[in-house]
């Protein structure tokens, strides 16, 4: 990339024209959308997955690795309260990140409450995945592997949105 940028700069300084003509041809019906519009769903999905899936999973794994779960159970706090606290932290973090991305990019168009409800549902889903991953992971490395594996499948529809030549039914699976 650096060599190509340097060659382009030298060509412009010398007053030479590029030896080829580049013509952009949009493919498919979504090709006319700007890249910013295509990136926003991917950013929101990953923000929700990072906050909702990774944070509770990491907190549960950390409790199990340090053996502090048994110390907490001795106190009046129950195991359900401990898990609920981790789920609430993951939910609030993830939900705020998703809404913040929408606000920063000024995407509140159309039915705002429906958008907020879907972000909330995605956040609940991510938190539940995070708690399940945290319960079944022996250490943080295995937990990260599970989170990244789940993240690829959850973000696949948003990634396939960049390629309009891929049929619509593939991203709906």
UniProtKB/TrEMBL annotation:
Key word Hydrolase present? no
GO cellular component terms, semicolon-separated: membrane
Membrane-spanning residues: 39-61, 82-104, 110-133, 145-163
Q: Which InterPro entries match?
A: ABC2_TM
Segments forming domain ABC-2 type transporter transmembrane = 14-173
Q: Does the keyword Ribosomal protein apply?
A: no
- Major location (coarse): membrane
Q: Which UniProt keywords apply?
A: Membrane, Transmembrane, Transmembrane helix
Q: What is this protein called?
A: ABC-2 type transporter transmembrane domain-containing protein
What is the organism field in this record? marine sediment metagenome
């Amino acid at each position: 990339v650096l060599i190509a940028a340097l060659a382009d700069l030298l060509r412009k300084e010398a007053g030479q024209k590029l030896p080829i003509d580049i013509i952009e041809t949009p493919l498919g019906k979504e090709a006319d959308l700007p890249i910013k519009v295509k990136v926003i769903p991917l950013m929101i999905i990953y923000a929700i997955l990072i906050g909702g899936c990774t944070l509770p999973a990491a907190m549960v794994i950390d409790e199990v690795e340090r053996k502090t779960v048994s110390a907490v159970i001795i106190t009046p706090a129950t195991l359900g309260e401990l898990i609920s606290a981790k789920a609430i932290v993951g939910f609030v973090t993830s939900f705020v990140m998703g809404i913040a991305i929408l606000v920063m990019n000024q995407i509140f168009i159309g039915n705002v409450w429906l958008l907020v409800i879907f972000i909330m549902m995605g956040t609940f889903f991510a938190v539940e995945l995070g708690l399940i991953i945290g319960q079944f992971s022996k250490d943080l490395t295995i937990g990260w592997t599970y989170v990244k594996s789940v993240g690829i499948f959850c973000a696949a529809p948003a990634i396939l949105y960049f390629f309009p030549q891929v049929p619509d039914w593939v991203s709906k699976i």
